[in-house]
Amino acid sequence: MSSFIKLSWLDPYQLLATRMRLSKRAMQTAYDSAFAGYLRCHELLHEERWANFRHDPSDWLLSLAEGEDKIPDEPSEPMMDFHYEAQVEDTLADHFASVVLLFADDALQCFARGVLGEKNHRSLDGYGPTYPDAKNHSGTVALTTLLRAGTNAIRHVSEWDTPSFPFPYPAMPHCKKTRTCAICQALPSIDVIQRVFGLGIHERIRDPVSMRVLIRVDGHLGSPGSVPSYHRFEEAVLSAATQIAAKSGEAASQRLQAAFAQNGKR
């Protein structure tokens, strides 16, 4: 529970601007920690590969064929620890990424509820930058759609990975009781995750995809001369908020800009 009491209900424009400003340091820390864990995981897996070379020379020959011509020093840690530590870092990356995704999704949902009304905000789909659909090459998935699928995976992926949940996943709609059927409620998020990340019908979603979503939204992991940046993620969220505001008319977009300008001066 926060040490600070919420006073009166804020104008949705001011509320979004205030939340983004107050949470910026925390979200940036979580964002950077997520990517640090992701990169450390891959470093440990690389270390494990070289450690295994002592027992299987074919790994070294394969590395030479791939252009890696230097044999590293002897690992300083026990070989059996590398895989475990890599799993720990991978889990940390997903946990930190989850914090960022949940914050962004909640902030946009709250903003849309205040601007568009309770009835219209339920279809918060298709706002913000778009990302390629790996299954339908001519299609795209918008940020708000991807965020909602990613946060649903955080909350419900353990339910999707049970013997009672049908697999391969059925087509939508699963049945006529869409509002009350847990499977029908899960299928749209599963479909988005499959499309964005190119998962086949034989691949079960068994873990949160939080880090995958963060990488996709940032879009610069591995790019020459570029490092992951929370600023890019924040810009994507603000782009979605601008489009949501624009749905209420030109004056709403101006109110959003004014709220961020005013909040930035404090």
Q: What labels would you give this structure?
A:
mainly alpha
Q: Can you describe what's shown?
A:
It is a single chain. By secondary structure, the protein is mainly alpha-helical. The protein is 63% helix and 2% strand. It has helices spanning 12-53, 57-65, 79-116, 118-121, 143-160, 182-197, 210-218, 230-246, 250-264, and strands at residues 130-132, 140-142. A two-stranded antiparallel sheet has the order 1-2. The longest helix has 42 residues, at 12-53. It is globular.
Write a compact overview of the structure shown.
The chain is mainly α and 266 residues long. The protein is built from nine helices and two strands, in the order H-H-H-H-E-E-H-H-H-H-H.
Ordered list of secondary-structure elements with their pairings:
Elements (H helix, E strand, L loop, with lengths): L11 H42 L3 H9 L13 H38 L1 H4 L8 E3 L7 E3 H18 L21 H16 L12 H9 L11 H17 L3 H15 L2
Antiparallel strand pairs: 1-2
Helix pairs in contact: 1-2, 1-3, 1-9, 3-5, 3-7, 3-8, 5-6, 8-9
Query: Largest beta sheet: what is the strand line-up?
Result: 1-2
Largest sheet: 2 strands, antiparallel
How many helices in DSSP terms? 9
**Residue fraction in strands:** under 5%
* Overall helicity: 55-70%
Which class of secondary structure composition applies to the elements?
mainly alpha
User: Which regions contain 5 or more consecutive residues with pLDDT less than 50?
Assistant: none
What's the mean pLDDT score?
84
Record field, number of beta strands: 2
| Rg, Cα atoms, Å | 22 Å
Alpha-carbon distance between the termini? Answer: 25 Å
SSE ordering? HHHHEEHHHHH
Instruction: Note the overall shape.
Output: globular
